[in-house]
Amino acid sequence: MTTGHPDDDLRRDPDPPARATNVDKQDPATPDQAPRPEAAEVESARLLANQARPRLAAAGFPDQRIDDLAAAYIARDVGESLEDFLRWAHGKGPVAREGDQPR
User: Fold this and answer.
1) What is the pTM of this model?
2) DSSP code of 89?
């Protein structure tokens, strides 16, 4: 059974499932948004960025983009090796795209 909502023409379920009511519409999650690293991960991200910087900079990546990608890579626990990070970073590109989380 559904009931009408006074503000619109949509029919609404009077007893929606819990997952339908626990949605934070002010902070939408998208696949490209990267979580920020935890305090213990910050140093790992910095070291990874510094190891990758010469190769990524040569490919046109600005320093801030390298730092942001390293932080996202570590926070998401995507992988562990420098080579894996370089492949992942090249897939993301040297310029932040819409939906990328700023630093």
Assistant:
1) 0.59
2) H
